[in-house]
Each structure stands twice: as C-alpha cells, then as structure tokens.
Amino acid sequence: MATRSFNPAVDIANMLVQPAESKFWAGLTKLQYGMLVVCVSAQTATILFTWPLWQVRQAPVHLPLIDLPQIPFGFWLLATLVVMLLRPRFGLGIHVTTLLISFVFDQFRTQPQFIATAVLMAATVDERGLRLVRWFLASLWTWAGLHKLLSPDWFSFNAWNMTSSLGLDPTEFGEAFGWCVGLGELSVGLLAILRPHWAAIPCALMHVGIVLFLSPLAYDWNYSVIPWNLCTAVVGCWLLASVPQRLPEVGWEWAAAAVMLIYPAGFYVGWVDHGVASVLYSGNLPDALITSESGLELVEGWGDLNVPFPNERRLLRQYFALSAPPGSKLHIADTRYALDDLYYVKKPDGQIALITLDEFHADAPGVVAGVGLDDQHSVFLLGNRGVVMLKRTEHAPIYAARIEPDVYRADLLRLLAGLPNLEQLDLSGCAITDADLQQLPIMPKLEGIGLADTKISDAGLNALLRQPKLTYVESEGSLITPARLEDFERKRMQP
C-alpha cells in the first residue's frame, strides 16, 4: 500500500479551495463570501478607529487634490461596505470609487491600510481579481523587505527601537533583527511570485506576528493597521493557496505582474508615493519642520486622526502653505540619495517660494530665521558612538556637541552635517589633525569651536574660514599661534 507524502502547500490548497460550482451568494462560494466578510469587517473597523479622518475638520487642515467644499465621507464609506455584502461586485465598485473620491477631497486619507484592504476585496469576487491580488501581495512583501534593506534609517533607530520594545538589547540584537525582518519579508514576496502555495502559511504567520508586535504586548503603536494585517493573514493565506501554482499564462496577467513588481522603484526618485510603494516602517521618508514666530512644528500627524502624516514632499509643501502664517519657513529633509533637501518661505500674500539654504537661515523684517531639521540617522550614529549632544528643551534642535577624546574618530566629523543648528562644537583633547578639519562640513550656525589641547596648527585654522559664522576658537594648548588667531578673529569681525 502506497503511503501519501505530506505536502503542506497542497494540503492547504485542498482545504481552502471549494469547487467552482458550489455557489452561495451573487455567484460567490461560501468561502469567497467569507473572505469578503473578513475584508469588509477589517475596512469597517479601520474607518471607525480613524473616524475623525473622514469628517469635515478644522485641524489638521485638509489636503485636497482639488479645492472643493468639504463633505463628510465616513457614513458614505460604511454604506458602500453594506452594499458590498448584498451585491459584492457592484458594492466593490462603488466602495473603491467613493474611497478614491475621498482622497481627492483630502490626501491625508491616502494611508496604505485603506488602499490595501480595498485591493484585497477584489480577490474575493472572481478569479481575475484573485490572480491580480496575488501580484499585489507579492509586490507588497518584496518591496517592504527591499525598502528596509536599502534604508539607512531602518538599520539605525527604527530597528533598534523595535528591538528594544521586545525587551532585547539593541546593541546585541538590533542589526540581526533588521536583517531578519527585511529578508523575511523579501522571502515571502519571492515565494508569492514563484511558489504561491508555499507562501500561504508564512503569510499568515508574518501578519499575525505584526499584529502581536504592534499590540500593547510589544511596540504598542499604530493600531489603525491591525485590522488590515489580520485581514491579510486570513485572506492572503486563502488567496495564495487558491491561485494557480504557476507564472502568468495570459498577457494581461503578465502586464499586471510587471507593473506591480516594478512601479515601487519610482519611490526613490519621487515619482511614486510611499503609501502605494510598500514603504512600511523602513523610514527613508521625507520629514518637515516649520519655523514660525510662535515656535517649531514637526509635521507628523497622529492626534485624533490616529494616522501619521502622509509624508510626501508635495503634501508637506501643501500643509505648510495652508497652515503656516506668513513669514514662516519650511525645511523638507529627504534621505533618498536622488532627492535634495528643500527650503521654503511663506510670503505676505500667502504664496510659498523655494529659497536657498543661506536665505533659509537668514532673518528679515517679518520673516523668521529658519531652523533646520536634525537628521535622525546622524543623531543616532553620533549618539551610539558616544558623542554628547545638547538641546535647550526636549523638542528643540541640537545646538551643542562634545566629542570626548576616547571616542573621537575623524569620520564622526562628517556626520555633523546632520546637525544643521549646531552652534558650539567641543573637540578639546581629541587626537584631531589639520587634515581632519577639512572633513568638517560647513555648518551655517556654528559660532564657537573648542580645540584646546589638540595638535591643530595655523593650517587647520585656515580650514575653519569656511564656517560662515564662526567667531570664537578655543586654542589654548594647541599649535595655533597667537598672531594667526588674532588675524582669524579680526577677519571674522569684519562685515
């Protein structure tokens, strides 16, 4: 008697796939309809949890694609979900249409959890939707992993913070955690491309794991994505066990697969929004800081909306134009290699204008001097290597740094470029050389530097002439001659 070999992928497929002729409602099988109920329940829960996002509000300001009178969308969206349960295909069409229209009224709503759950619904209504969503999930996981592996932010503060939330020492496990998560997501994505049945169980385990991680048991953050992850664990597992175990056989599916797998790369040149490019927890997003007479505002969302700000360069500009008073300035910091930082001022007529870095830091009547955004990656690396950094208040930028002699390395100087508001730098006693000072970036607000008890000479002092506001050099115990120091200070005092 022949023995049956155990094949998890085949067993899952047999359990989850019903015969096509077993119809339950509106042409759907019981299992398809059950998956639809899961999607509708997840979308309903997410909308209710973020209810203020779908209403007309005063703050934070709406970010319309077209300037139209605002209307509420919460009850309309819930109504379309009810219709979907009664007439699945028709309901899906009006739900997606309503969702897209709501984005036109307010781009704050372009959050990945709403978009991805709506896409999952398409898998429940027919086989073409099933095949299409297979490639959506393959792209989602492949690029979620790639974005992490390519992001300097992920392998610094993001992975370390997450490792700490698990009760582990990030100095020992942080890097390993970063690699495991990134490679794990990438592996599930590749399985979904090549052997989708094999990816069914990893899909369920991965998304249930994400839910547990985001719960109060660990990271305790961003609850609005928990319904989406639960939905993906269930519907994704069923979908991967149901699709044909093969590559596309028809032209439209090849085209869909190619588009799904390629378009997220456009994120790195600013062509594709991160919300639809599977940039999930990897960092590497543009951030913005607004300087006004009343103080500083880091643009970050959350609050009653329960979602982060959709950090796209155009939306950060739009938020600044709509919310900041005239005379304010905006710094958009972008860590993507192909995209530079941007600086703006809001004019008296309410229009915003792109300005240079020097103009950003300068003040004028009715216009504040801009405060640059500290680069989190640089701050992490400097702090992790023992550099002491000071703030005047908890939410203020870093204004002073001290590098102790026992932690000094020349490559730390280049990282100071990530501290655009640095006013004081103490290198006293460090084994710094004249050549090292050539690596010091131009710091627009640096006023004083400590070089006491170092081997810096007059040649090194010449390198400091590049610093536009540097007026004080502590040189006692160095090789800088008094005459050269006096000449340096005299030149700096000249207008």
TrEMBL record:
Q: Which InterPro entries match?
A: LRR_dom_sf, Methylamine_util_MauE
Q: Where in the cell is it found?
A: Membrane
- Segments spanning the bilayer are 33-54, 66-86, 201-219, 225-243, 250-271
Q: What do the Gene Ontology cellular component annotations say?
A: membrane
Top-level taxon: Bacteria
The GO annotation for biological process reads: methylamine metabolic process
Q: Which keywords does UniProt give here?
A: Membrane, Transmembrane, Transmembrane helix
Gene3D superfamilies tied to this protein: Ribonuclease Inhibitor
User: In its UniProt entry, what is this protein called?
Assistant: Methylamine utilisation protein MauE domain-containing protein
Q: What is its main location?
A: membrane
Q: Taking every annotated instance into account, which residue ranges of this chain make up the domain Methylamine utilisation protein MauE?
A: 131-214
